[in-house]
Every structure is written in C-alpha cells, then in structure tokens.
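This section describes the prediction task in plain terms. A model, or a person checking by hand, is given the sequence of a single protein chain and must write out its three-dimensional structure as a string of tokens. No templates, partner chains or ligands are provided. The sample shown here is typical of the held-out split.
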Amino acid sequence: MTQHEPTIASILRGLAHEYDGPVEERRILDRVLEQRPSSAKNPYATIRERLRWDGLKLGWLRLSRTQLVPLRVALEGLRFRCLPRSRDIEAGLLPLAHLQPFAGQRPGTCELRGADGSLLAVLSSGAEEDLATLPAFNLRAWYAQSGFVPGDSILMRVVRAEPLVVEIEREDREAFRAAAVAAQDAELIESIVERVRRAQAALVPCNEVLLPIFAAAPWRAGYPGSPWQHLVLRDGRVHLLDDTFLTTQPIGALRIFGADEVFEPPVEGLYRHSSDEALLVEIDALQRDLRQARQRDAEAGLWSGQVQRASAFGAAHADPGRQSFFSRLNHDDDDDWSNDEFWDTNALGDGDTIDPDDPMIILAARDRMLSLLPAETVERLQSARPEEVELIIARHLNDLLARAPDLFPRLELVAPEEQADDDLVLDVLSAGDWQEVWEGTEPDDLDEDFDGDFDDDLELDEPDDVCRANDDLLGQFQDYLLEMGKSATTARARGRALAIYADFLESYYGRSLAEGDYATLDECLFYYYPHRVGNTSARQVREICTAIKQFYAFLQQRGVVNDGRFAEALWRRRDQAARVVEIYERISSESPNFDLLFERLFRPYTD
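The expected answer:
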C-alpha cells in the first residue's frame, strides 16, 4: 500500500457521510472496491470483517444480513427516557450507563444540553476508568434549577451524532403517559428477547441488540417509552451484565457492576408492570371490537342486546350433586388437572358421576396420562401418525393400570331395562379412545342433506329431561355427520365441543340445546369458556364455534328451531373468542393488576 492509498477504514468512514438512509451492504462493498481494488479470491471478506468488528466506530450500523445504515442517521432525532436513582439525584449525577447504547460508540465527547441550547454537562469518553467510580455527568445545577425529584424522568433527544450532542428536558412523574407507551414497551422487550436468543454468543453487547431495534422502530423519534434497562429487569427472560451485555444465561457471580446497582425498580406507580399496561391496551382494543360486533348483530335483529350473566353469579338451575363435581374443574379453584386429588373418586359426593364423554374429563385424562408416560414416548406421540398413536399407547396400558389405576375410574352407567338396577359396568378408556382424543378434529363443512329421524318431543320440565334431550340431540347430530361421510373422530369431536355449550345451558339456565340463543352463546364463549372451563385453548374455542354453527344449521334444517342465524353470527366472531382465551392465559395471577385486567377482559359480564 502506497503512502496516500486509502484504507478500508477511511473509505467506510467517508461513505457513511454520503448516504441518508438504509443501503444494501453489497453496494457499500462495491464502493469500497472501486476505491481500493483487490485481487483476493473473495475481496468482500476483508471488508465484511471490518464492518463486523469495527462497524460502529467506522460509522455504520447493521440493520439485517443484507442492509446497513449510517450510524448518524440511526441516532439523530432518536428519543429515549432516563430514570435516575434517588442516590444519583442526591449526588447530582447521571451515570453514563443511562445513555447506553446511544453514547460511547466512538472516541470523543458527549454533551448534554438544555432545550434552549445551553451546555449542561460534558463527559469525555474514557475519562473515568476507575472501577470504584462509574462514569457520570454532573447535573447537580440542572437538577436543582429544574426542580427534579425522584420519580421524574429525563427525556433525551439526540441532536447530533458526531460529536454526540443530546438535548434533555425534565418530565414530571405525573405527566408520564403510560397508556401511550404500553404497546411500544411490549414490542421493545419482545424484540430484545428475540434478538438475544438468536445470538450465538453467550454475552451480546447491548448496542448490537438495541441500536438496530431503535433505528427501524416507527416510534424512535416519538414520545419515549420506559427505559429499556427497566424492561429487561422486569421481564426476567434476559439479564443485563455490567450495564453493557445481554444474556439469557444466569449471571450470578459474574456481575461486576450489575444492572441492579445502576438501575433500580421505578418508583411505585410509575412504569410498574409495563406488560400489564400493554395487555390493558390490547384488551381495550378487543372490547371495542366486541362492542361493535354485538351492536351490529343487535341491529340485524339477532338478539335484543340484553347481556345475560348467569355464569358470573352462579348456577340457578344446576343439579346440586352435579354442580359440586364440576366446581372442582373451574379456574377459581386453582386445581392442577394433573394433580392426583383430581382423580380421587372417593371425594365425589352423593349422586356425583364421571361422564366419560365430557370433553373436560377427556382432556384432563389425557394430560394425566402424558405426565405418567416416559418422555421419549411423549415425543413419539407428538410426531406419530394417527394410526400409530393407538399402538404406542397400547404398549403402556398395563403399566398405566399398575401405576395409576385411578386414571381408569369405575363409571356408573344407566342400566338398560333388561339389566338389574344394581348392575355396574367397568368402562375403561381404550387405546382407540386415546387415539381419537390425540388426533383432534377436522374443519369439515356441514352437508345439507339428512335422511335420519328426529325426535320432536322437546317439552322439558325437569333437569333430567334437559339432560336426556341434549343427549338425544348430540347423538342424532353425530349420526348425521357419520351418514354424511364424516369420520368417527370428527363426529365425536363435534359432539364433545357442543357438550361444553350443552353443560353451560343445563347448569346455568336449565335449557336444552334447542333453546340456545345469541345471548347465552355469547356468554358461554366470551366468559364461561375462557374463565370456568379447564385447559382452554384458542383452537378449541374455534372448534366449538364451528360445531355450534353446523349443529344449529342442522336443527333449522330439521325444523327444530326456526332461526339458527345467531350461531352463524357467533361463528363469525370465533377469532374474537380466541383472542379472549389467549389474553386471559397471559394475565398473571400474581399481578397486582389482576382484578383490573380481569374486569376489563370480561366486560360486560363483570359490570
């Protein structure tokens, strides 16, 4: 290399001032080679290495595998928030760590200026290397002049990147707009976790994680959210080491100046539980959609608009014995379905029986069985074809019977007329039953033709009459599906999905399925199912909606009901029902905001 030949570093620094937005990496590599030709077999390799290890110092930030952006473009105009500790305010200091990773990328000085342009503090990089003292800005005069107190925020805006100049202003703690940044905070922490998990290194520099996120974020120059360090501290999936590195591994004794030494939990009521704030925003948006959908359906004449709330206040029509059994399945009781106590048939009260076709019992039995099977067997089941499931489970039946005989309870079945009243039948779930539970369902459409018979006598006065009527209706619907060519698995799955609504109608309204309507179905899908049924899932609630749509179309076709449009209307809202289930699963029972989130999610049933 001659004395005046440009270096790769100098060319990259120069190019960083020629672009004002993202640029393809290949374009930059070619521009370097134009000024510094290379005869190497892979001339791009050396340039890529310089960008990899010294990119920020040379003025370039990598956005993706193929795209770069000048660092000055990524930084200028960027806004973020700092929340200094009480002890730092008393000492008149602001540790440099609060400005990471937006400061300290290059040698030089970092200036803090007021909104009027006045110089407030200067910190030369590397000025304080002593490990006993963290590098910090002296803001004693500004703290006093602005009336800054613990809980207030410092809002920062990068005015210039070379050298770094940051404009600061005070925000009173009462002025913080939590709802405005909840979604932003949730997006930021998820992006941080994703990038750290994807990284191959055990320790990832925070600038490699945060700078690309902020550079591409639509809110980078808007109202600042919570400090990213506080989001990391609260989340727990990633850890901050020495204010500089992020890791998913436990850091324990590795900490030198740990995050909890420079950053501390915010003052009570400020930024606490930002994940809850994000949930609240999501819930409010969902509730707007629900109100609009219900209003449209009321205007279409599908219901009166009067909300029913029986399941929120207890079952008015349920059989006492049956209710005592089902109460053990509710979320309110905090029972773990894999707990042995769930299967203690001796705990059943008088008149209590186990319904082998109840979908909740089937799901609980499946979870119990999986907890007993070897891990390698569970893995095989997850990847097995439907026809293989029965064989895999059959090999373990003897062992399951020996280890957990309570998994196969004795069931009292209604005796046929020709049997004696005291006859009992031991009904054990077969391997084939397990196969059908494991296999799931198919989203088949309802066929129009049906040649079977239908019972027309639905005059119901007693609870037992309601149960028998529902059994008849479910049985005839499953027969219809079989005659239409659906598989036995699909027919039984549709029946099990319908059984949830049937149990709801029986327990809380004393009605049969033939007496279902929009109000009770809305209550079942948007309150009873997500809150009071165990082992809920977004997929299952969609299956319930599909089964109900097909079932009421079938009843209307046979003349049992005059109008089944309400079921189709709720089917169209199946994605909303799934969103309720998903959000409820994300609400932590340990959160101090649980009651608020619960009340908002299940409106209008909690009003």
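For orientation: The chain has a mean pLDDT of 78.
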